[in-house]
Amino acid sequence: MAKNSNDIFDYLPKCESSTPQGTQARLKLSQLRPTQNAVGMDEVNVKTKKIAEKSGKKLEDYLLQRTIPIIIGNGGQFYLIDHHHLAISLWRAKGDMEVPVEVTKNWSPITGGRFWRGMAMNNWVYPFDALGGGPTNPTSLKQHVKDLDNDIYRSLSWLVRQDYGYVKDPSNAIFAEFKWGSFFRTRVIFHAQLACEKRCMEMTLADIEKSDPDDYHEKVSYALYLASSPEASGLPGFVGRSG
């Protein structure tokens, strides 16, 4: 009999507050504490659809290749420091399933300001909101992956990377897309954003493409141009123009 999604990783030990650094274990999605406030919902929607089609061995293999790195800290809480898009997509597609995690550091005894200073020094927290505001006190971070807000500029940076406007830089991978999103935020404004009156934060690039395809394609092309310009040269994964 095929296992349901919550039993796929029952061969891994449950992650505890005392689990040592380097251990691969399992946690429920609801136990993971975000270290950022927003995601790009365009990417999430694509991932959710892809994950919904997977089950059993295919889902297991997919997730083992994307084991979620965590920090144990603040008295034994579990903080994911990467794969936020994966986590919220899994929640939407499969519910509160158990996922494979790997303990990057066990800082369980470290709490409060000392904990967050250590997280900031290692670039393991992004204390900004979905509109780019911040930094804010990390105690205001979302407490559950399902509550992450939509940042349309995080979606734009993902789309530009999909079109090879820049590449993933293994030496500077964490929050790289947000750095690109911040770059685009002051340079690319879609007409639909100026006309929006209700639920504006929920607007996705897919919504804009549907409502105003000409403006969508013009602004995405401009973002790709900007990504290769000297203005972006200090950003992670910059490739510049060829020829």
Describe the structure.
The chain is of the alpha/beta class and 243 residues long. It folds into 2 domains: 24-149, Alpha-Beta Complex (Conserved hypothetical protein from pyrococcus furiosus pfu- 392566-001, ParB domain), CATH 3.90.1530.10; 151-232, Helicase, Ruva Protein, domain 3 (Orthogonal Bundle). Helix content is 37%, strand content 13%. The protein is built from 9 helices and 7 strands. The chain has helices at residues 41-52, 56-64, 84-94, 112-121, 152-162, 176-185, 191-195, 205-211, 213-227; strands at 24-28, 32-33, 38-39, 68-73, 77-80, 98-107, 149-150. The strands form 2 sheets. A 5-stranded mixed β-sheet has the order 1-6-4-5-2, with no helix packed on it. It has a two-stranded parallel ribbon with strand order 3-7. A hairpin with a 3-residue loop joins strand 4 (68-73) and strand 5 (77-80). Helix 1 (41-52) packs across helix 3. The longest helix has 15 residues, at 213-227. The chain is globular and about 50 Å long. The mean pLDDT is 94.
Summarize, please.
The chain has 243 residues and is α/β, with parallel strands linked by helices. It contains nine helices and seven strands; from the N terminus they run βββααββαβαβααααα.
